[in-house]
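Hey, sorry to bother you again with one of my protein questions. There's a protein on my desk that I can't quite get my head around. No rush at all, and the record is pasted right below.
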Amino acid sequence: MYSHLSEPDPEFAPHIAALMAIPLISDLHERRKQFDTVFVETARKTYGSRLPKDTEYCFTDHQVDVANGKIRVRSVVPTTQDGSHATYPLMVWMHGGGWANGNVELDDYQLRAICVELQISIVNVEYRLAPEHPHPTGVNDCYTALKWVLTAAAESQSLLGADVKKGFIIAGLSAGGHLAAVLAHRARDDPFFKDREITGQILQVPAVLNPNAAVPEKYKPSLLSFEQNKLAPGLTADSIRLSFERLGGDPSDPEVSPLLYSSHAGLPPAVIQVCGLDPLRDEALLYEKLLKNESVETRLTVYPGVPHAFNYGFPGIKMAAKWEEDYRAGLRWLLDGAPRDASYL
C-alpha cells in the first residue's frame, strides 16, 4: 500500500550499502556501547553548535522515587533576562533506544534548544531499562514521573517553571513514542489528571505493535511493511523482535501494543512523524488513522525514503532539516490548541 515510501531518498541512498553491512549486535553490553557511540555522541556533535547561551535556561537533575528504586529526571527551564519569575507550558519527554538503551543524555542538547526556542519547560525521563527491568517497569517509571511533575509544579512553580494550564504535552521517539502513547491512554482514564489533562502528544516513529501480537483481521491489509521493508538499515525486523523480547510482557496487551487498545477516543491531539524506510511505518500510519477515526485531532508527516531515527545519523540532509522544522511546528500547533486552521497544515 505504501511501498512507494520505501524508495530511497537521493541524499540518503549512497549510505545504504554501508549501513546494511553493519551486523546486528545481540550482546546487550556491546549494543549499549554502540548506541552511546552512534546516537548519543552524534546527537551531541549535531546540537552542540546550536545550544543557546547557558544564561537562557537552567537544567537540574532530580531523583524521583519509583517502585523499588529511584530514577533520574532532568528539567530544562527557560530563564528570563531580568531574573523575574515566569511560568511556561510543559513537555515530558521519553527517550528512544528499544527500551534497552539510552538515557537523558541522548536528547539533552536538542531539548535545551527547544526549551529556549519555544519557551517551554521540559522534563526528560530516564526510565529503567529492559531486560533487567522488564515491562511494565519502564511504563510505570514514566507514569510515576508524569505524576511527580504535576505534584512538583503544584508545590513549587519555581522548581520546574511549569504551568500545565498553558500546555501539557507528552512526547517520545521510537520506544519513547510507545511509552508516550501508553501514558496518554492511562492519563485519559485516571482521575488524578482531572482538571490538568494532557493537552497533546508527540509520537516520533513510534513502536505501537509487537510483531507477535494477535492482530485483528481488519488491520492486516494495512500492516505490510514490517517484513516487506527489506531496505531498512539500522532497524530490521529481527532487531524489532529482539527489542520486544527484551521489553517483555504479553504481546497482545495494549500497554505493549498500543495499536490494540479497544478505544482511542478522548485522547489528546497527536503529532505523528513517520519514516518511509522503516519497518514500523505501516503500524504508525494505521495508528494515526485509528486516532483520527475516533475524532482525535492529528498532524501526520511522512518522510519518504529515510530510515528509522535517520535524523540522528544523518542530520545534514534536507529531510533531517524538514524533520526538525516539522517537530517544532507540530509542538507549536499543540501549544496553540491544535486548531484546524489551514495555516497549520
User: Anything to note?
Assistant: Residues 3-336 form a domain with the Rossmann fold fold (CATH 3.40.50.1820). The first strand starts at residue 57 and ends at 66. DSSP finds eleven helices and eight strands in the chain. The two ends are 24 Å apart (CA to CA).
